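Input record (one chain):
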Amino acid sequence: MKLKRYCIILFVFLFAFSCKKTNLTITEPGPDFFLGKMKNDTWQGVSVNGDKLNIAGTDYTFQDTILGIGGIYTGGNKGNIVVVPGGDNLYTVEMDDKAKESIDEVMNIVGEENMTGVMGEIVNSGGDPSKIDVDKIAQNSGATEEEKKRLEELFGGLNSNNFGNPNTIGPKK
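The corresponding structure, as predicted from the sequence alone:
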């Protein structure tokens, strides 16, 4: 009988300690993770030094990641640039603060995993939000009809002055 009682007590203690909350903190990759991927000088005219990115002689400073594969940087003519690799190419779009706020909300709607497609649409539109295929973005991201309307509002509230220098940078030759 004593063995049974000891086993029950032991089980209760094990159960109590195994259910204890931990202080585990989930973190996202830092600039070194994303920028480290770019250090191999994959793209023409792109170089990395610490948290600094240089594209064709213009310096940018790392601000945030997009799914650990892309990045948002400050600097340049418009104040911000989004850089997302897609296949062999690197897509870049400069944007002012208003466009960045809209793109942040677009990312919340479509998810970080679909931002490469969004960036491709912006680059293909030549930086003109009126030419962005919102239907394609909504379809590829699985957005609801309400979310699609919000995407149309976000892109409709922008104009080509909010974006600058959409570019597709090819691989080094």
